[in-house]
Structures are given as structure tokens and as C-alpha cells.
Amino acid sequence: MLAFESPSVRAVPAAEAPVNELLDLWVRVNDAGGAVGFLPAAPRREVAQALESHLGEVRAGRALLVVMREPAGALLGFGFWLAPRARGLEHLAELMRLMVEPSAQGRNLGRLLLAGMVGVVRRELPGIRLLRLDYRSGLGLGVFYEAAGWSEIGRLAQGISLGGDEFRDDVLMARRVDGAPLTPDGAR
User: Fold this and answer.
1) Burial class (CB in 10 A: 0-12, 13-18, 19+), 140
2) What is the pLDDT of residue 188?
3) Taking the CB of the first residue and of the last residue of the chain, which one, N or C, has fewer CB atoms within 10 A?
4) pLDDT for the residue numbered 186
């Protein structure tokens, strides 16, 4: 009998964060051209500083680190949920730095991680109703997120500079945690 074990996705406290594994994966994703805050060949120390900043938010209780591991234990991906600090936005969480192992592309791991991250919100953040993210255009990410129930809600043309005269749009997307359609002014 053939059995399939899927990767596990779970929130991890900052004290248990596999810092070196996270950093190694982030650098590999950058170098593969992933849109996770840096351009390819970004200095490792800069990525380490960004990772430490996110982990500081986790330690402070303002963010969740979510990791995906294969059944044998290898890190396959991770991302963060960040809680906005502004009053009136307590029902919203922002997806940050979603990434999967570049050598495992084509195995639907991004979809599994994204779905698992929404599941973490449902289980562990009961006050959260809305999710949002932004991404750099030009990599086909809009189609990926739309297939997972996200809707484009804004776009700043040429909002992200890649250096020189190269720019990409900064695209904002959102979805409800329960999967229902987004409705203006809370209409039902």
C-alpha cells in the first residue's frame, strides 16, 4: 500500500525558531530571484538583520512565525503573520516573506504553505477576520494568490525600484479568513 505524508505547517515560538535554517533558505530564495525583500546576491548579513527584525516581532507578540517541514524534518518554507499596530486594525493580519525551498519548486509547496498559514490564523488568531499582503509584480504571483482566494485591492505602478531604471508595481491583495468574498463597508 502506498502512503503519502504531506508536509506539516505550524506556528513556531521565537525561542524555537531554527534561525540558521531560516536564514539559509531566505538566502537561497533571494539568489533564485524570489520576491522576498531583497535582490539576488544580497549580502547574508542584511538578510540576517531582516530575519532578526521579524523574529523580534515574534518575541514581542506582534507576529507569528509559521514553518513548513517535510515529514523527515527538512525545512521546506516559512512565512510570517504580522499584526498591524494601528488602532482599528486589530482584526487584520499581514502576510510577510512567504517563501519555499527553490529546489522543490513545482511540488505545490507554495499552495500548501499558504493554505497552512491561513489555517494557523483560523486556529490561533481567532480575532483576525481579514488578511492582506503585498507583492512585487512581474513574477506571476497575482495568479498564484488569486487561485488561493485573494483579491487585488490596490496597485502602485512602479512602486518598487529594482535599481537603475527598472521598476515593478507594488500590488496589494486581501482575503477574508473564512473565504467569503470581500464586500465594501462590511455589506453582507
Assistant:
1) exposed
2) 62
3) N
4) 64
